């Protein structure tokens, strides 16, 4: 099963790098105003477990029907270990292990992530953008996207998020020109 996950992650990384979308809300918004990240990211505070609250639908998470989460762990001077997991329709837990690295200074909110095997890490197209675009001061709620607004995840330290907090975050995302009508809530 582990070999299947590695192959799946590799194919996922390759396809992600090759996908180009037709003119859409995201591309029009990108042309109007670039995506803004948070000013700085305290990476040690960001480590730990984050639960997916909502996301833009994407093909590489189609198997996931509930309990989607990510665990970030520092990896001895080599970036951040990423362990994504979710529950499938069959009730199984599926996992994908990856690596994240910061782009720029030590407090940069711009990261790249890959799920391809480490020996392919030198190839730029196996890395995907992971930009922290919103986070509360307590590092309990975050939004992550990419420079093209193609992907969007709302994350929380808890599996449930207060509706008022969620609605306030949606307002901030709308100001960043995200089409929040595309967000799908994640079942817990």
Give a description of the structure:
This protein is of the alpha+beta class. The protein has a single domain, classed as Lipocalin (Beta Barrel). It is 22% helix and 34% strand. An eight-stranded antiparallel beta barrel has the order 1-2-3-4-5-6-7-8. The longest helix is centred in the N-terminal third of the chain and has 17 residues, at 2-18. The relative contact order is 0.22.
Name the descriptors:
22% helix, 188 residues, lipid-binding, 4 helices, Lipocalin, signal, disordered N terminus, 9 strands
Q: Identify the strand order in the major beta sheet.
A: 1-2-3-4-5-6-7-8
Q: At CATH's second level, what is the architecture?
A: Beta Barrel
Number of strands: 9
Provide the domain count. 1
Please give the alpha-carbon distance between the first and last residues: 24 Å
Number of helices: 4
Mind telling me the CATH superfamily name?
Calycin beta-barrel core domain
Indicate the CATH class. Answer: Mainly Beta
What is the percent of helical residues? 10-25%
Strand content: 25-35%
Family: Belongs to the calycin superfamily. Lipocalin family.
GO molecular function: lipid binding
Subcellular location: Cell outer membrane
Pfam families: Lipocalin_2
